[in-house]
Design a protein that fits this description.
Blueprint: H1 3-23, H2 28-46, H3 60-91, H4 94-100, H5 110-126, E1 132-136, E2 143-149, E3 152-158, H6 159-164, H7 167-182, H8 185-209, H9 214-228, H10 234-246, H11 271-278, H12 282-334, H13 337-350, H14 387-396, H15 403-406, H16 417-422, H17 424-462
Parallel strand pairs: 1-3
Antiparallel strand pairs: 2-3
């Protein structure tokens, strides 16, 4: 995913290094060596297309040339991931609680007092540090453990869960959350979320630089201000989280995007497109930018495919395994697998996410009841294991088998290797989709490499 960033980072880095070397007396040979090295990169990559070369892109010089082109973008993206993870870690849970609309328990409400007692019992049983308790005024039955570590965590429970579940079932759900905290899942999730935050920042940069989107440029500045600022505001952290993750699929309608948007809409984002449509000669001025815009769409498609087919499934695969482990810890703490099975079966019907909490889905005990995949996060893979799978594992631990009651609740099927092997239709569709993905990746990667080489050629001309 560093390829889109390399388009900007690699030429800029070579220019800075070259100017620094030229400004230091006696470094003429080093500057000439840099120019010669960078000037050789196009020839090295061209070896891949040589008919006499049987290795293709695996030729050593071609691989070296690609590394010189892409490595700066990869390093910068890795640095962004580290910085975002550290920054959100320091921000704590205050902003997330505010964005979810969580509140402290009422002291005159018996149910809300009881949930505090249940959480206290489970923290003592698990040896976990004391956790804060918050309530969500929502009819949907669900609960979440949020925070950045076991020493700074909170349990958020909806009123729908308190009203719909018995004490034993509520205790099993709380034990699941506390087990998740005790297992270090919050630290893992902070690292996983930083992956999607980094991807969101890359997509914002593409829209701001290549699509000339004013709103994307403002959002990039907002994200960088949070990332690099001295003051750390938890509320601002939650807003940036929503910006980078919750809106990761958003295609903006201002800038050059406005040329293809519905001009009949009254939104101000379409003013640019309406202006260009009214004055067609203006297209001549925009021709270079329109070419870059097409490249930005291809790069955006490349990042989207990598997130959909590689990063998303890997990240969500890790998190789904952690849900199984938290279920096992719940059974261990409560010694009552039946209570957890009944709770999950009820949540499969009554549980759901708040619409504004879609990007925070991995934090909750169960995902969306609509059976849709986590498009913002895992692409074709959901953030939670299929409910029948969870119930089967609980039954194997001695609990009642409620799989038949829950298997038709709309939970997305789990895509496994066995599924592809045993189902010809799934295998055929997956093969076609993979072929389309490979072709699309090639179409997206070639402009990225070409633009980077063009940028390097301009830099060499300046040096």
């Amino acid at each position: 995913m560093g390829a889109p960033l390399a388009v900007l980072i690699t030429p800029a880095l070579v220019l800075i290094v070259g100017l620094v070397l030229k400004s230091i007396p006696g470094n003429e040979s080093a500057s000439a060596a840099l120019v010669q090295l960078i000037g050789s990169v196009p020839g090295w990559i061209g070896i891949a297309f040589d008919e006499e070369n049987p290795c293709g892109f695996l030729h050593p010089r071609t691989l070296l040339g690609l590394q010189l082109l892409l490595l700066p973008g990869m390093i910068v993206l890795f640095g962004i991931w580290l910085a975002l993870r550290a920054r959100f870690w320091r921000a704590g849970v205050g902003g997330l609680l505010s964005s979810l609309g969580a509140r402290a328990p009422r002291r005159d409400d018996v149910e809300e007092i009881q949930i505090g007692n249940v959480i206290e019992e489970m923290t003592i049983a698990s040896g976990c540090p004391e956790l804060l308790v918050f309530l969500l005024d929502a009819d949907s039955a669900n609960a979440a453990a949020i925070g950045v570590s076991e020493n700074e965590a909170a349990v958020v429970v909806s009123r729908g869960l308190l009203d719909g579940l018995g004490r034993d079932e509520t205790q099993a759900v709380v034990a699941h959350l506390i087990g998740s905290v005790a297992n270090g899942d919050l630290r893992i999730l902070a690292s996983l979320n930083a992956v999607f935050q980094s991807v969101g920042l890359v997509l914002l940069a593409l829209d701001a630089v290549f699509a000339l989107s004013p709103s994307a440029a403002r959002d990039v500045v907002r994200a960088l201000r949070f990332l690099l600022g001295a003051r750390l505001d938890p509320v601002a952290a939650a807003a940036v989280e929503e910006l980078l993750v919750g809106r990761i699929l958003l295609l903006r309608e201002d800038g050059l995007h406005g040329l293809t948007s519905d001009l009949r809409k009254p939104q101000p984002e379409t003013r640019f497109g309406r202006f260009v449509k009214r004055f067609p000669p203006f297209y001549v001025v925009l021709v270079p930018f329109l070419l870059l815009y097409v490249v930005s769409l291809l790069l955006r498609w490349q990042v989207w495919l990598l997130r959909l087919l590689l990063a998303g499934p890997m990240v969500m695969g890790v998190w789904r395994s952690r849900r199984y482990l938290a279920d096992a810890v719940s059974v261990e703490l409560t010694r009552n697998p039946d209570a957890l099975a009944r709770a999950l079966e009820k949540l499969s019907v009554e549980g759901d996410l708040l619409s504004r909490a879609r990007w925070a889905e991995p934090l909750f005990v169960v995902g969306s009841s609509r059976g849709t995949w986590s498009e913002e996060l895992g692409g074709v893979v959901g953030s939670h294991p299929p409910l029948p799978k969870r119930l089967q594992r609980i039954a194997a631990m001695g609990g009642v088998d409620l799989t038949e009651k829950a298997k038709f609740r709309g939970t997305p099927a789990e895509l496994t290797l066995k599924t592809f092997v045993t189902s010809p239709l799934v295998f055929t569709i997956a093969s076609l989709f993979f072929l389309i993905a490979v072709i699309s990746m090639g179409l997206a990667a070639i402009p990225a490499i070409g633009l980077t080489l063009l940028g390097l050629k301009l830099v060499l001309a300046l040096l």
